[in-house]
Design brief:
The protein has 557 residues and is an alpha+beta fold. Helices cover 22% and strands 39% of the residues.
């Protein structure tokens, strides 16, 4: 025993030097410490969620060449998710493929008349409507079908002049004088032309010639097949040349007018296919093509109007009907990703790439919307796998892993980022400068810790000593001002690691062998804070904090 007591101080000195060298070695290998810190933090979170050690391993962290662990250009870090957590949040992954892209644009439209097939019935002479044949709006008419009869004194007089000119021509044609014969022809031609200009057709003039007498009322006919969309004429009404008596529309062809938003203009082209559906005819689709794209933007709605022409043989498509328009325009080949895969903040666009080994790295991309999907212009290549669901949860995990305070709070292996000064590399036993950053080693607390709080003396001892990564026993000895043990106190322990988001865990104690004992399970190596809450009858509660260093670390360091 005497020999053991003699070598004990030397052995403690060797142990202290070895631990100092061990800590310096870990400080030199900062990249491995950073990896270990992220990995350990993730394991602690999983343990709090009840995930097993096997699930936490996630195939290890070794051998991952080129793996981005720290924050990348996005300012975020790789997110690490176990299979159980992926299943819990409903995460899905899909492979990026190069495809023939097609712009699908949906818009609201309405049916309109074909403006090239409208006719207006007006007169060029004054008169009165004697008889009305087409007397309501919406009536279908055929080309040449009578609309109404018109009595006009001027028209009647011109008919009589025409008949007189014809009779005169027969007499003058027998004259030996050429000018006389020519005068007869000129009279007929001038009166015939006047009738034509007033809207009398060639057929009606021929009938006038056969009849040999003028008509009191002339019949006005429809110039086209169509439907009456406007009627102003009333029987017995006096009409003048500036009046529009009828408007007739040929509905054998109609237009679909659709409004396309400004951001979608680049995706549409003349001749693009259009698929049109209507609530009036469920399950039936009408096919057409874009015939015209307006040259002007509506400043109020920020839309451009496009026109689609459709045949309408059965007159099923009626003007002012609403329509759902789907425009399809083929584009170049490209990488197409679903909308759910992209996180678009307005400032940047980002996806999460599956790097294997349960690691998902954030990556900034450049993409533009194509219908309900996005075509990637920069940032991805075919064959890569990206996350398509639960992106927001993974984004939160990634931001948490990149927290600027995380490494300073971990306290792993007793190292804290206490100072950062510009300077050259300088290493000694008191501190270490490395690439302009000075780091001091934390004093390792291994033995009993005693603190006084008023008349109370609190001594904390752990078993094992020093504490380890895992289960430990916390022993607290309470004595009064004269050193007498206190046995009737109520003692509770609370322990936590000083880092963002870590909640304190409270454990009760039992009094055994003159000390208060409680169990603590440290989830990872590093600095842990243990607070003792002591309550004595008739006195306020006393709190005292102790700092412990839990042993452990990455193998091989």
């Amino acid at each position: 025993m005497k020999y053991v007591r003699m070598i004990q101080p030397k052995w403690n000195a060797v142990t202290f030097r070895f631990r100092t060298y061990f800590n310096m070695k870990r400080a030199l290998l900062m990249i491995f410490i950073i990896v270990a810190a992220f990995w350990s933090f993730h394991l602690t979170r999983n343990r709090a969620m009840g995930v097993t050690e096997t699930e936490q391993s996630m195939n290890g962290m070794s051998g991952m060449e080129g793996m981005e662990i720290g924050p990348n250009e996005t300012g975020q870090s790789v997110a690490m998710l176990s299979p159980q957590k992926k299943q819990l949040i409903g995460m899905k992954v899909t492979e990026v493929e190069e495809k023939e892209t097609k712009a699908i644009i949906r818009a609201a439209g309405r049916v309109a008349y074909d403006e090239r097939k409208l006719a207006r019935i007006t007169l060029k002479v004054d008169g009165w409507i004697e008889k009305l044949f087409v007397n309501f709006t919406g009536q279908e008419v055929k080309k040449g079908e009578p609309l109404f009869t018109l009595y006009s004194p001027d028209l009647l007089a011109t008919q009589q002049e025409y008949l007189l000119a014809r009779r005169s021509q027969k007499k003058l044609s027998a004259s030996p004088i050429a000018d006389v014969r020519e005068t007869g022809n000129l009279l007929i031609e001038s009166t015939r032309k006047r009738l034509l200009l007033w809207g009398i057709s060639d057929q009606q003039i021929e009938e006038l010639e056969k009849r040999g007498e003028s008509q009191t009322a002339m019949t006005i006919t429809s110039p086209i097949d169509g439907v009456v969309i406007k009627r102003e004429g009333i029987q017995g009404m006096r009409v003048t040349p500036e009046m529009t008596l009828y408007e007739i529309a040929d509905l054998s062809t109609v237009w679909i007018l659709a409004d396309i938003y400004e951001s979608e203009i680049s995706s549409i082209k003349k001749g693009a296919e259009a698929n049109i559906t209507m609530a009036a005819y469920p399950g039936e689709a009408f096919k057409g093509n874009i015939a015209f794209i307006d040259s002007f933007l509506n400043p109020e709605t920020r839309t451009v109007q496009v026109r689609i022409e459709l045949p309408n043989p059965d007159l099923k498509l009626k003007p002012q009907m609403f329509a759902d328009v789907e425009l399809s325009s083929p584009l170049q080949r490209g990488l197409l990703i679903p909308e759910s895969a992209l996180l678009d903040s307005g400032v940047r666009q980002m996806v999460f790439v599956d790097q294997g080994r349960e690691m998902f790295a954030p990556r900034e991309v450049k993409a533009r919307r194509i219908g309900s999907d996005y075509i990637v212009e920069k940032g991805l290549t075919a064959g890569e796998k990206i996350v398509t669901s639960a992106n927001f949860l993974i984004d939160s995990e990634s931001k948490l892993m990149a927290s600027s305070n995380m490494m300073g709070a971990l306290g792993m292996a007793g190292i804290r980022m206490e100072q950062a000064q510009m300077g050259e590399m300088d290493m000694n036993t008191d501190g270490m400068k490395m690439d302009g950053m000075q780091m001091k080693k934390e004093k390792t607390l291994t033995g009993p810790q005693t603190k006084k709080k008023g008349d109370l003396t609190l001594t904390l001892v752990t078993k094992p000593t020093p504490p380890v990564d895992g289960e430990n026993l916390l022993h607290l000895v309470l004595t009064d001002a004269v050193g007498k043990p206190i046995e009737n106190a109520k003692v509770t322990f609370s322990y936590t690691m000083p880092m963002p988001g870590m909640k304190a865990v409270k454990v009760p104690t039992t009094f055994k062998n003159g000390q208060y004992e409680g169990k603590a399970k440290f989830g990872m190596p590093g600095t842990w804070e243990v607070t003792a809450f002591v309550t004595l009858s008739g006195k306020p509660e006393v709190q005292e904090k102790f700092t412990l260093e839990a042993g452990g670390g990455m193998p091989g360091m």
